[in-house]
From TrEMBL:
CDD domains referenced in this protein's UniProt entry, alphabetically: biotinyl_domain
Gene Ontology MF term list: ATP binding; ligase activity; metal ion binding
UniProt keyword annotation of ATP-binding present: yes
Pfam families (UniProt xref): Biotin_carb_C (PF02785), Biotin_carb_N (PF00289), Biotin_lipoyl (PF00364), BT_MCC_alpha (PF21139), CPSase_L_D2 (PF02786)
Residues annotated as domain Lipoyl-binding: 588-663
Protein's organism: Azospirillum thiophilum
Keyword list, A-Z: ATP-binding, Biotin, Ligase, Nucleotide-binding, Transit peptide
Ranges of residues in domain ATP-grasp: 120-316
Protein name listed in UniProt: 3-methylcrotonyl-CoA carboxylase
PANTHER family documented for this protein: CARBOXYLASE:PYRUVATE/ACETYL-COA/PROPIONYL-COA CARBOXYLASE, METHYLCROTONOYL-COA CARBOXYLASE SUBUNIT ALPHA, MITOCHONDRIAL-RELATED
C-alpha cells in the first residue's frame, strides 16, 4: 500500500479522497491554484503546493507541474478524482513514464473509452447493445446530414470526447442540424480540445441507468449494482438514486453482466461506470466513464463499501476485496447535487461569498460531501457545486422523505442556489411514483419552476422582527456604554415619550413595496403586514441569525441573514429575499434604459450575431456568451434597433456589464 498520495483535484472530491486516505494511514498532498490557497482541501491535506494561477489551464490541467510536485514531495501515486485530468490518457502515460502510479485504468482503456465513437465500435464487437447511430470518423457536414436522415429524426448530436452534457444538442428536424452541429463543435472544442461528433437516435422517454464496475490486475471484475440518474437538466445529472427503482431483477443482472463485459473488453482496472439508456425493456450502451463518478456515494450507502479504498487497494496491486456472489445491497439512497446556480434563469451558474452555509446534521441516514465552508467564495473559475447531499433508508419512500427534510434544513445564503428546485423534485408526485425519465424536468417545468410568488407574511414578519431586535440590541449596547443602568431609555418594551409604541418598516419584495407595522405589547408584539389583521407574536428570541417566535399561534423558526440593506429569510426550506427600503438606493436602481442587455454572469463572448443599426425582432439571437464551458444566447427582449455593440468575439466580460444596447421600438 502507498505511504503518500497526491490528489490532483480540488473541492469536494479532493476532500473525499483525503478522508479515506487518512483513515487508511496514508499521507496526502494537495495541489491548488492561487485562488484556492485557503480552500478546504488544502487545509485538510498533510501537505499542499501551489501549482499556478486560478484558470484551470494554468493550474489543475498542468500535468507536468503536478508530476513535478509528486516527485518533490515523494508521492508514490496520484488520485485524479473526476474532471480535470481524470480521463486524460496523456497524463496517465506521463505518470507511468515518471514511475508514479495513476490511480485509474490503463492508458488504452482511457483512450478507447474516452472516444464515444471508438468505444461504441468496440462495444458492438463485444455484443453490448447500442442505440442506433453514427460513430464514424468522417465529420464533414454532408456525411453527418446523410447519417441523420438514415437514423431518422429526432437525433442527438454529441461530442465524441468528454461528457457532462457539453457539446450535446437534440435536433428534431433537418433544418436545425447545421446550427446544432456548429454549436456542438464549438462547445466540444472549448471543453475538450476535440470537436469530433457522433449521432444517435434520440429516444423519447428513456431512463439513464448506470452500472458501477470494478476490476483488478488479476483478471477479476464485478458490478456493484446500478444507479438511476434520469433526472437531468441540460443533460447534466441533478438527483441520482440507487438501486434503480422498478427494474426486474433479471434485467439488473443482465445489465451488470453487460457492464463487466464492456470493462473486460478494454482490459479495465479500477473503478468505472458503464452508462446505459433504458426504455421499454431494452437497454443500450451510451459510454463508459473511466473514473470515479460524482454520484458514487449512493452506491457506497447501499453496499456499505468505501469505493475510494477499493481504488487505492486495486491501484497498489491487491485483488478486489469481494467477488460478485459476496456483494449485497441494502436499502435505498439518493444524492442531490447542490449548485450555486439560478434555476429561474435557465440554471445559470452564480458566484459570490457563502455568507451562511449550514448543512443538516450528519447521521447514519444523512451524509454531506462538500469542499467549501461558510465564508468561502464560489468563483467563476470552477464548477459551482456547493455540496452533495446523500440520504439513505431502508426503502425508497423512507429515503425520499429524509431527502425532503434534509433539503429543507440546508441553509445557504450569499449565492443563488438550486436547493428549492431540488426540494420541488423530491416532493413531486411523479417523482415519488417513479414516473421518471431523462425528460422529467422539462415535462414538469411548470411545477418545478413556478413564477416567483410574493413573499409570505410569515417571512415578512420574521424579517421585520429580526431588524427590530438587531437595531434595539445595537442601540442598547451604545446606551449602556454611557447611560445610567436605571435609565428608562434602556427599556426593551417599546416605551416612547409621548408616542404610540409601534414601529413601521417598509420592505421591497422585488419591485413591490411591502409595509410592516410592529406594535409592542409588553414583552411581546403584534405584527400587521400591508395593513392586514395584526398577528400576535410571543416568545421571540434571536440567536446567531436564527429567530424563533410563535407567529399567530404557529411556532416558527426562521434564519434571517442581512447584508447591507438586503435580507434573506429561510423558513422550512423556502428562501425569501427582501430589501429594506432606501430611497436613494431605489433611485439608483431605476437608472438606465430597458434596452441595455447585460451579461448574466462572467464569461467570454463567442460570437456577435448583429451589428449597430440592425433591426431585430423579439427573441432574435444577438450574441453568444460562453461561461462555465456552456454557451448562453443573449436574445432581444423586444423588437428594436441595435444601437451599440460593446464587445467582440474573444472578449472576456464581467457579470452585469452592458453587452449591447437596443433601442426598443415603440408599441
Amino acid at each position: 500500500m502507498f505511504d503518500k498520495i497526491l490528489i490532483a483535484n480540488r473541492g469536494e472530491i479532493a476532500c473525499r479522497v483525503i478522508r479515506t486516505a487518512r483513515r487508511m494511514g496514508i499521507r496526502t498532498v494537495a495541489v491548488h491554484s492561487e485562488a484556492d490557497a485557503h480552500a478546504m482541501h488544502v487545509q485538510m491535506a498533510d501537505e499542499a503546493v501551489c501549482i499556478g494561477p486560478a484558470p484551470v489551464g494554468e493550474s489543475y490541467l498542468r500535468g507536468d507541474v503536478i508530476l513535478d510536485v509528486a516527485r518533490r514531495t515523494g508521492a508514490q501515486a496520484i488520485h485524479p478524482g473526476y474532471g480535470f485530468l481524470s480521463e486524460n490518457a496523456g497524463f496517465a502515460a506521463a505518470c507511468a513514464a515518471a514511475g508514479v502510479v495513476f490511480i485509474g485504468p490503463p492508458i488504452d482503456a482511457i483512450r478507447v473509452m474516452g472516444s464515444k465513437a471508438e468505444s461504441k465500435r468496440l462495444m458492438a464487437n463485444a455484443d453490448v447493445p447500442l442505440v442506433p447511430g453514427y460513430h464514424g470518423t468522417d465529420q464533414d457536414f454532408a456525411t453527418l446530414s446523410a447519417e441523420a436522415e438514415r437514423i431518422g429524426y429526432p437525433v442527438l448530436v454529441k461530442a465524441s470526447a468528454g461528457g457532462g452534457g457539453k457539446g450535446m444538442r437534440v435536433v428534431r428536424a433537418a433544418a436545425e442540424l447545421a446550427d446544432a452541429v456548429a454549436g456542438a463543435q464549438r462547445e466540444a472544442k472549448a471543453a475538450f480540445g476535440d470537436d469530433s461528433l457522433l449521432l444517435e437516435k434520440y429516444l423519447s422517454r428513456p431512463r439513464h441507468v448506470e452500472i458501477q464496475v470494478f476490476c483488478d490486475t488479476h483478471g477479476n471484475g464485478v458490478y456493484l449494482f446500478e444507479r438511476d440518474c434520469s433526472v437531468q437538466r441540460r443533460h447534466q445529472k441533478v438527483i441520482e438514486e440507487a438501486p434503480a427503482p422498478n427494474l426486474p431483477d433479471d434485467l439488473r443482472r443482465r445489465m451488470g453482466e453487460a457492464a463487466v463485459a464492456a470493462a473486460k473488453a478494454v482490459s479495465y482496472v479500477g473503478a468505472g461506470t458503464v452508462e446505459f439508456l433504458y426504455e421499454d425493456g431494452g437497454f443500450y450502451f451510451i459510454e463508459m466513464n473511466t473514473r470515479l463518478q460524482v454520484e458514487h456515494p449512493v452506491t457506497e450507502k447501499i453496499t456499505g463499501l468505501d469505493l475510494v479504498e477499493w481504488q487505492l487497494r486495486v491501484a497498489s496491486g491487491a485483488e478486489l476485496p469481494l467477488r460478485q456472489d459476496q456483494l449485497t445491497r441494502r436499502g435505498h439512497a439518493f444524492e442531490a447535487r447542490l449548485y450555486a446556480e439560478d434555476p429561474q434563469r435557465d440554471f445559470l451558474p452564480a458566484i459570490g461569498r457563502l455568507l451562511r452555509l449550514r448543512p443538516p446534521a450528519e447521521t447514519e441516514h444523512v451524509r454531506v460531501d462538500t469542499g467549501v465552508r461558510e465564508g468561502d467564495s464560489v468563483t467563476m473559475y470552477y464548477d459551482p457545486m456547493i455540496a452533495k447531499l446523500i440520504v439513505w433508508d431502508e426503502d425508497r419512500d423512507s429515503a425520499l422523505r429524509r431527502l425532503r427534510v434534509a433539503l429543507a434544513e440546508y441553509e445557504v445564503v450569499g449565492v443563488t442556489t438550486n436547493v428549492a428546485f431540488l426540494g420541488a423534485i423530491a416532493g413531486h408526485p411523479a417523482f415519488r411514483a417513479v414516473e421518471i425519465d431523462t425528460g422529467f424536468i422539462e415535462r414538469h417545468r411548470a411545477d418545478l419552476l413556478p413564477p416567483p410568488a410574493p413573499v409570505a407574511d410569515r417571512a415578512l414578519a420574521a424579517a421585520s422582527l429580526s431588524v427590530l431586535l438587531k437595531r434595539r440590541e445595537e442601540a442598547q449596547a451604545a446606551l449602556r456604554a454611557r447611560s445610567d443602568r436605571h435609565s428608562p431609555w434602556l427599556l426593551a418594551n417599546g416605551w416612547r415619550l409621548n408616542e404610540e409604541n409601534h414601529y413601521d418598516l417598509r420592505l421591497m419584495d422585488g419591485e413591490t413595496a411591502r409595509e410592516v407595522t410592529l406594535h409592542f405589547r409588553g414583552d411581546d408584539y403584534e405584527v400587521a403586514v400591508d395593513g392586514g389583521k395584526p398577528m400576535p407574536v410571543t416568545g421571540v428570541s434571536l440567536t446567531d441569525g436564527v429567530l424563533t417566535a410563535t407567529l399567530d399561534g404557529m411556532r416558527t423558526r426562521a434564519t434571517v441573514v442581512r447584508q447591507g440593506l438586503d435580507l434573506t429569510v429561510l423558513i422550512d426550506g423556502a428562501v425569501s429575499r427582501l430589501t429594506l427600503d432606501d430611497p436613494s438606493a431605489r433611485a439608483a436602481e431605476q437608472e438606465g434604459g430597458s434596452g441595455r442587455l447585460t451579461a448574466p454572469m462572467p464569461g467570454t463572448v463567442v460570437r456577435v450575431l448583429v451589428e449597430p443599426g440592425q433591426s431585430v425582432e423579439a427573441g432574435t439571437p444577438l450574441m453568444l456568451l460562453e461561461a462555465m464551458k456552456m454557451e448562453h444566447t443573449i436574445k432581444a427582449p423586444a423588437a428594436g434597433t441595435v444601437s451599440a455593440v460593446n464587445f467582440s468575439a474573444g472578449d472576456q466580460v464581467s457579470e452585469g456589464v452592458d453587452l449591447l444596447v437596443l433601442d426598443i421600438a415603440e408599441a
